[in-house]
Amino acid sequence: MAKKTSRIIGLIMLIVAIAFVFFALKHPEASFPWSNTVTYAIYAVYLIVVAILLVAPFKK
Question: Which domain of life is it from (predicted)?
Fold first, then answer.
């Protein structure tokens, strides 16, 4: 994947995550139909992918 493409995808994912946090703070009644363990695992994988997409282009 090209460096520029990786950065753009990473930034879009980061913006979506920030928007999700603001939505979740405004709507505490919304929830997922599964346990918190699954939710936290999904969050962790998402953040790892974002970090890889944003950091990887700077490595040689």
Answer: Bacteria
Give the tens place of pLDDT for each residue, 1-42: 788 888 899 899 999 999 999 998 998 888 888 899 999 999
Question: In angstroms, what CA-CA distances link 7 with 4, 17, 27, 39?
Answer: 5, 15, 30, 25
What is the Cα–Cα distance from 14 to 30, expressed in whole angstroms? 21
Q: Map tokens 């929830």 to a residue.
A: 31
Distances, alpha carbon 54 to alpha carbons 1, 20, 45, 48, 60, in Å: 12, 19, 14, 10, 14
- The answer, as to whether pTM is greater than 0.85, is no
**For 31, how many CA atoms within 13 A lie in the half-sphere containing its CB?**
7
